[in-house]
Amino acid sequence: MSLDPATVRRIARLARIGIDESDLPALQRELNGILGWIEQLNEVDIDNVEPMVGTGHAALRMREDVVTDGDAREAVLSNAPDAAGPYYTVPKVVE
Amino acid sequence: MMLTELTIAAAQGGLRRREFSAEELVGAHVAAIDRLNGRLNAFITVTSEQALDAARRADAILAGGGDAPALTGIPLGIKDLFCTDGVRTTAASRMLEDFVPPYESTVTANLLADGAVFVGKTNLDEFAMGSANITSAFGSVENPWKRAGDAETVLVPGGSSGGSAAAVAARLAMGATGTDTGGSIRQPASYCGIAGIKPTYGRCSRWGTIAFASSLDQAGPMARTVEDCAILLQSMAGFDTRDSTSVDIAVPDYRAACGRSLKGMKVGIPAEYRVAGMPAEIEAAWEQGIAWLRDAGCEIVEVSLPYTKYGLATYYIVAPAECSSNLARYDGVRFGRRVPGASLDELYEATRREGFGAEVRRRILMGTYVLSAGYYDAYYLRAQKVRNLIRKDFENAFQTVDVLLTPTAPSPAFAQGEKMDDPVQMYLNDVFTVPASMAGVPAMSVPAGLSQSGLPLGLQVIGRSFDEESVFAAASALERAAGFTHRPAVRAEVV
């Protein structure tokens, strides 16, 4: 599979990473280089193989349904780039 | 006495016998950082004042007699990927240039509880994505080693834990933390002539460590001896309820394991690691390591891990996929850099364009693509299945052998500027380290000798899940046989 400029633009849009038209040729070349190289996985027979989603040594644990953390509003907001009182701010999203 | 030349094990004794104070020990390292960090760029943030204060507190504890915690007064570097309470933590990214965590990672909290003194936050590839420490937003790290007869050429320290490796090799810290996703502890350890272990996935808590690829990321120690790595891992490891992948299993006595006899240990030599085009000196170091382990009483067994050659390609689907998901949190709203935009999407796009460097952007885009509708099965699901085959390779091998021995990297440290035109060429540095990461098994690099150009070469010992003890035992035997006493050209005691 080879990525065309429109696909690179679409991926960048999905990832919410701004790109300039002038970035496209280099990105397209680099991504296609990597994709071409990982095509080698197509030769592996994966019939009847389960996907590995983790190393499987940790069991999901149950715990009491109680509050274990919290009351840390100041700490949580301490790195906000543009906090307003106890809120994060974003550009206007509703007209 | 050159305090910067001591091992952690020796310093523990010296501090307790009051041969020198923690303030002197930490002060010697702080002075070395002052003198050399401008050149090596091994630290992004130096915390001299806090370190000296902590050293004075350590001296008070040591003076009180009784049992001081194991690492009391020991100066360490902390990879700038571990959140440290009140100390800026950048992940070497412009995105987190001013990020000051209001909490401490579990691994660093464990080290602090054992008395360790942090001299600073070490440089790395941005968000730990890289193999040469050239993608840091805070500049490249210089490897303190030089090619024989060539004092000019600047070599890379490896990556992503390149600042940690350079700091320990140059004697700016006695040990350091690293993280390893596909080789980020072992490969820089090899390039800088030190030891480093990636423990079993689940052994060290990931809580408070900035995430790259969560199913692979694992913290581990880097130090100048295998025993020092054992001492540090003893403190770093342990179950943590705040990491759902942390495994509730007792942490054995790693230091004791270093002295274990290897009589009867079976060492596997995987045929597939004899890759085409491997330099003769790498092959020779490997053969030497095999001979050393045989002399130590090991039985050498040829084994086959047939899916090895698919490790890297699998990694470069799985890791970017997880990276694209993890790094979605950097949105310019809640923490980190923010670049204003007229709409929310414009804010996101401008922030992420400006905040991330080229390699991080590339991996996010690749990960977004392999996870996107229509391509998920062809790439991501296929990679997860191949990953399972790679893991089964290791499980099969460990039915007959106790550890595996391989080279750590396919070359010694290369020069800044080399291998930089093509991302795939850079990725090939991790060919020997990635498979163990995919399987989650522990693996350690230990210095074995020098290349013809006078640069360190590491050997890798890979063990069964949660059997770091056999890894430490075999690595210690290699270390004793190698008698590696070479030191880098740039180091604390060279004025």
Automatic annotation (TrEMBL), chain A:
Belongs to the GatC family. One of its GO terms (biological process) is regulation of translational fidelity. SUPFAM superfamilies: Glu-tRNAGln amidotransferase C subunit (SSF141000). InterPro entries: Asp/Glu-ADT_sf_sub_c (IPR036113), GatC (IPR003837). It holds the Pfam family GatC. GO terms for molecular function: ATP binding; glutaminyl-tRNA synthase (glutamine-hydrolyzing) activity; transferase activity. It comes from Gluconacetobacter aggeris. Allows the formation of correctly charged Asn-tRNA(Asn) or Gln-tRNA(Gln) through the transamidation of misacylated Asp-tRNA(Asn) or Glu-tRNA(Gln) in organisms which lack either or both of asparaginyl-tRNA or glutaminyl-tRNA synthetases. The reaction takes place in the presence of glutamine and ATP through an activated phospho-Asp-tRNA(Asn) or phospho-Glu-tRNA(Gln). This is Aspartyl/glutamyl-tRNA(Asn/Gln) amidotransferase subunit C. Heterotrimer of A, B and C subunits. It comes from the Bacteria. Its EC number is 6.3.5.-. Signal peptide: none annotated. It catalyses: L-aspartyl-tRNA(Asn) + L-glutamine + ATP + H2O = L-asparaginyl-tRNA(Asn) + L-glutamate + ADP + phosphate + 2 H(+); L-glutamyl-tRNA(Gln) + L-glutamine + ATP + H2O = L-glutaminyl-tRNA(Gln) + L-glutamate + ADP + phosphate + H(+). Keywords: ATP-binding, Ligase, Nucleotide-binding, Protein biosynthesis, Transferase. It is an enzyme of class 6 (ligase).
